[in-house]
Design brief:
single chain; 601 residues; alpha+beta; eight-stranded antiparallel sheet; six-stranded mixed sheet; globular
């Protein structure tokens, strides 16, 4: 295929604005997928994506399109992207492999928070942006208002927007012509072959499969290729394109998007952002890769059965190849045994990873309460970063504690300004600005603690705005806060997996609710179990689980009182001895109770 006839583009939009439906319709109308093989959400491969209706993984597909005007054949490489704020890293990787982007806007909802975030990302990457107004078939659609919003908020000429209905197929052919006319062909660099690894996945039989975009030169089947970051050389046993399934080819030329299989069985030898070149004629410099993302949320994953620890490690390593934003390291707990402290981009990302581990790898998990990273300034100008509450030092040595704040952008109709402001205030938000983006839609910006945003801020925002508000956030800075470590003691022993870092003002409430929840969840034992919440050495809340009591005097039908007393004293001594050596069984539900307490607040 001639380079001038190749177009690489991506679809970006706010969640639920119709990206997957538009991709489906393009695949159908161009005949890329036969009608007998077609199914809705065709590019969403994971079960969790299809059930939730949310794209989690970027997907590449090559579309063969013949332009009606002159009969020319074009190869259009489409990369479908996620829309949720937690997966913006997937979007940035997709955009690095493209020259253009379709910015999809719902004709009824208009521009929302993630629309704006993805637009800035595409603009900063230097892509040609084609605005597309989708869902024009809806009764509430108002394309003219959306055109005005595109001009006012994004600074793009509204007359350039293409109107489509992905559901009905209206305007798709005009959109295909706009892609060919407006998106430039790939720029081909001179010199040896260089390909950017923009994604990868692991196949049990073939090993690690690299998704690549060639920027210069070409790679042939059987060539010896070198992965420059790991300096590993291997034979390219298969190369090809996604059309939409993996289709082998003899050659991948400049500007093309495809895959390379090179018998890589060790998944640590392939990393997203690496550069692939030929071993016989290697390139000198690596292509600019991707910035390493810093995880926003941390959580402990433990196998419910101790013997599944190694299976959990293998599953996490394979999942990390598919999801380069996932990071993990071993940790141990006195209650849960051995597990891993995992880093995620957000709570939704954490839920997806947990669900994939349980479904795809068959591992039953126990997850601890999620936390964020904190900076502790110690006496003597020493600063440490912690991502586990058990690492929080003694308060006497702490000068100040800083927590991550995010810049939250909320867009909503003006009638919900009051409830949204009240919610932000409850979550310790700091007001920054408020702007009208149209006659009745408002953009509000707040600085908010990430620890308050990750739990249920999004759910409560949707509730108080009847679903009309949208949210986007990005890390801003670390800001000093009055934070303390809340310890939970069961049987007078601290349980590190239940400890958490909280603001001093809400410590008593959370401590009280957690011990009440634990009292309901932990079964009775043969001895009394005290459950306590403490800050340092000070107990702030307590509940007691009474012992299971056997009536040892039931066999006495009279006689001297000393006989009954003797039996009761012997029972008392036995329970005392049992309390010293007995272990309290903490059920898995106890660790979820912390999440419930956060949501009740």
């Amino acid at each position: 295929m001639l380079v001038d006839n190749i177009r690489n583009f991506s679809i970006i939009a706010h969640i639920d604005h119709g990206k997957s439906t538009l991709a489906d319709r393009i695949l159908q109308i161009t005949g890329t997928v036969p009608d007998r093989d077609f199914r809705p959400q065709y590019l969403d491969k994971l079960d969790v994506e299809r059930e939730r209706g949310v794209t989690v993984k970027l997907q590449a597909v090559r579309i063969r399109h013949i332009r009606a005007a002159d009969g020319q054949e074009f190869a259009l490489n489409l990369i479908d992207t996620p829309g949720h704020v937690d997966f913006s890293y997937e979007v940035s990787r997709s955009l690095a492999a493209c020259e253009g982007a379709l910015l999809l806007v719902d004709a009824a909802q208009g521009i929302e928070a993630q629309t704006l975030a993805h637009f800035y990302l595409a603009r900063d990457t230097g892509l040609v942006i084609i605005p597309v107004i989708n869902k024009i078939d809806l009764p509430t659609a108002d394309p003219d208002r959306v055109r005005d919003e595109i001009e006012l908020v994004l600074g793009i000429d509204g007359s350039e927007a293409v109107e489509v209905s992905a559901k009905e197929g209206t305007g798709i052919k005009e959109l295909m012509d706009a892609i060919i006319d407006r998106v430039p062909p790939p720029k081909v660099d001179a010199g040896p072959a260089r390909a950017l690894v923009f994604d990868s996945h692991y196949d049990t039989y073939r090993g690690a499969i690299a998704y690549v975009r060639l920027f210069s030169g070409s790679i042939n089947k059987g060539d010896k290729v070198r992965f420059m970051a790991s300096n590993r050389e291997s034979e390219a046993v298969e190369i090809g394109v996604f059309a939409p399934d993996m289709t082998p080819l003899q050659t991948l030329g400049p500007g093309e998007v495809g895959y390379v299989i090179a018998n890589i069985k060790n998944i640590k030898e392939l990393s997203v952002g690496d550069t692939v070149t030929l071993a016989s004629d290697p390139a000198e410099d690596l292509l600019p890769g991707y910035r390493k993302l810093k995880s926003m949320v941390y959580c402990g994953f433990f196998a419910s059965e101790a013997e599944n620890y190694e299976d959990l490690r293998d599953a996490l390593e394979r999942l990390a190849l598919n999801d380069s934003s996932l990071e993990f390291e071993p940790e141990s707990s006195s209650v849960l045994g051995f597990g891993f402290r995992c880093g995620f981009l957000g709570m939704f990302h954490m839920e997806i990873v947990q669900e994939r581990l349980e479904r795809e790898y068959g591992i039953n998990l126990v997850a601890t309460a999620p936390t964020v990273i904190y900076r502790i300034h110690m006496s003597g100008d020493k600063m440490i970063e912690i991502k586990n509450p058990s690492e929080f030092p003694e308060s006497l040595k702490v000068e100040k504690v800083e927590e991550p704040f995010v810049r939250s952008v909320v867009m909503c109709p003006e009638e919900f300004i009051g409830p949204v402001m009240e919610l932000a205030k409850d979550k310790r938000g700091r007001f920054v600005s408020m702007d009208y983006i149209s006659e009745n839609r408002v953009k509000m910006v707040y600085l908010m603690p990430l620890s308050e945003v990750i739990f249920d801020f999004y759910d409560k925002l949707k509730s108080c705005s009847r679903g009309y508000a949208s949210l986007d956030y990005e890390f801003d800075s670390f800001i000093e806060s009055d934070l303390v470590r809340l310890n939970i003691l069961i049987g007078e022993k601290s349980v590190d997996s239940l400890s958490m870092i909280v603001h001093r003002d809400s410590a008593y409430y959370k401590g009280r609710r957690i011990v009440e929840k634990l009292r309901e969840l932990i079964p009775k034992h043969m001895f009394v179990i005290p459950i306590q919440a403490a800050i340092g050495n000070r107990i702030i809340a307590r509940e007691t689980i009474n012992a299971v009591r056997k009536n040892v005097t039931a066999k006495c039908y009279g006689g001297d009182i000393t006989r009954k007393r003797k039996l009761l004293e012997r029972q008392k001594e036995g329970k005392k001895r049992m309390k010293n050596i007995g272990n309290v069984e903490v059920p898995q539900e106890a660790f979820l109770s912390i999440l419930q307490v956060e949501k009740e607040k």
